[in-house]
What does this fold into?
Amino acid sequence: MRPLPSATSTRYLALWFPFLPADRIERLRRKRGGARSSRCAVPAEDGSALSPAGPLASSPLVFVEKVQNALRLAALDRAARRAGLAPGLTLADARARVPDLAVLDHDPAADAAFLEEVADDCDRWTPLVALDMPDGVPDGLMLDITGCAHLFGGEAALRARLLAHLQRHGLGALAVIAGTPDAARALARSGKGGVVPPGGEASAVAGLPVARLGVGAEIVTGLSRAGLKTIGDLAARPGTPLAARFGMELLTRLARTLGREDVRLVPRRPLPECIAERRFAEPIARTSDIEATLALLVDDLALMLEARGEGGRAFEAGFFRTDGAVRRLRIETARPLRDGAALARLWRERIEALADPLDPGFGFDLVRLGVLRAEPLTPAQVSLDGRAVEEEEVAALIDRLSVRLGRERVLRFLQRDTHDPDRASVLVPAGGAPAPSATPPDVLARPLTLFDPPQPVEALAEVPDGPPLRFRWRRVVHEVARAEGPERLAPEWWRQPAAAPTRDYYRVENREGRRFWLFRAGLYGREAAGPAGQPRWFLHGLFP
It folds into this structure.
C-alpha cells in the first residue's frame, strides 16, 4: 500500500464477465458446430449495459448447484436474467416463473479454466494481468495498463478495442478504467462502464452501495442500520468512529475505493526483463513467417540486452491466435546469451522438435518474445590455451540438446559436500543455473562404478570386525588377496536419526586382480542390520 502520486498515477482496467458460464457453453457449441444461435453481448457505447447480439434461443439457460439439499441457481444467461430470474433462486421457483427453462450443472472448475484462457489472451494488452475474484467466483480480471494505453491510442481506445475483441469471441464484459483496482472493480460490478479520469474516483463511486466496498455482510447491515447506504455517505463521515465501530478494514477498503490509496496487483505471470513484439494487420500462419518474425524479435532483444550489459538465460515466445488461443514456448540456455544468430538457431530447433506442432488456426496476429531471466554478461577473453572457446562450444551443445530433447533429459553430475557416498553427487539439468561448487572432502579413493542400491553379498571374515577373507557375489566366490580399511562412515544424524547403521568400507582385491568396494552395515554388539540381528555385507562399487 502506498499513497497515490498526484502527477504520475497507476491505471487499472477491471473486466467483469456477468455471464461467463453461459458464454463458455456458447463458445464450446460454436467450436463443435452447435446449432444454438449466438447470444453474445455487445456493450453499449457508454458501457453501462449489455444488449444481445443476434436472435435469442427459445429456452433461457440457468446453471444450478445443490445448496442445503436444494437446487439453486448459481449462474444464468441473458435471457434468464431478462425473464426476472436471479442467482440464489431455487430451481422449483425458477421453473414456476419460466416453465421452458434449460438447466445445466454449475461447473466452477471449468469456468475457472476458461477464465485462465481469457486471461492469457488479455496478455496482448498488458503483461500485468491478474484474476479478480473477490467472492471466489471466477468472473473477473484486473489489468494494470500503466504506460500501455498510448500504444493503442489512449485509454478510451484501448478499452473499446478490448471490448470489441472480447465480443468477437463471444464474451460479454463490462470494463472500467480507474486509478485503483478497488475503484475499477466496484464500478464494473455495479454495471457501470467507461474511463474515470485521474483523481475522479471519489465522485464516480459516491453513489454506489456500501456493499461494493467488499466488506462482510455483517458490516454492510450495520452501516445500513446507521443510515449509511452509499459510499458517498460513508466518505462524508469521520474515520475514527467508523474504525472504532467496524474496524480498520472498512477504512482501508474505503480509501482504496475512493482512489486515495493504491495496492499493486500480483500478476498471474512474472514480468519479463524485456519484451519485443510484432503485431500483424493480416495474421501469419506459415512456419517460415513465424521463424522470420522470431529472428527479428531476437535482434530487438539482443540490442536491449547489450544496452543493459546482460545476457538472457530464459526466453519465452508467445503466439496469439486470432480466435483468442495462446501458445507459449520456452527455452533456457546454459550461459547468458544475446547472440542473435545463436538464439534464432535455438528457436528454430525448438519449433522443429515440437511433438505437437504450432497450430496457427486462422493465423497469429501477435508474436511476443520476452526475456524471463537475465544475468550480467561481460565480453569473454579468450585464453592462450583455447579453453574459453571450448567452454563456449560445450555450452552451445548443451543448449541445442536441451532444446531438442528437453531440459530434463540433458543432465550433469553436481558434487555435494557430504561424506555419504550415496549422496556425494546428484544429477541436475546441464543447462540450469550453476550451483556453488562444493569443495571435495578429503577422502580415500572412490570407485567409478557404483551400484544403486548396493548389492548384498555373503562374506567370511577372520574376526567379526575384520576385513573379509572371501565373499560370494552373483554365485561366484572371490578369494581376497589384499584388503585395505576399514573406512568408517556414520550416517548423517540430522537427516536419518538412528535409521541407517554405521558402515565399515574395505577396498579389496581378489586373486585375479579385480578390485571391489565392500562395506559391512552395522557393528557387532552395538548395531544390528540383518534380520538375524547380525551385520550384513554389501558390494557398493567396482574399481577399474
Notes: Confidence is low (pLDDT under 50) at residues 1-8, 34-57. The first helix runs from residue 20 to 31. DSSP finds 14 helices and 24 strands in the chain.
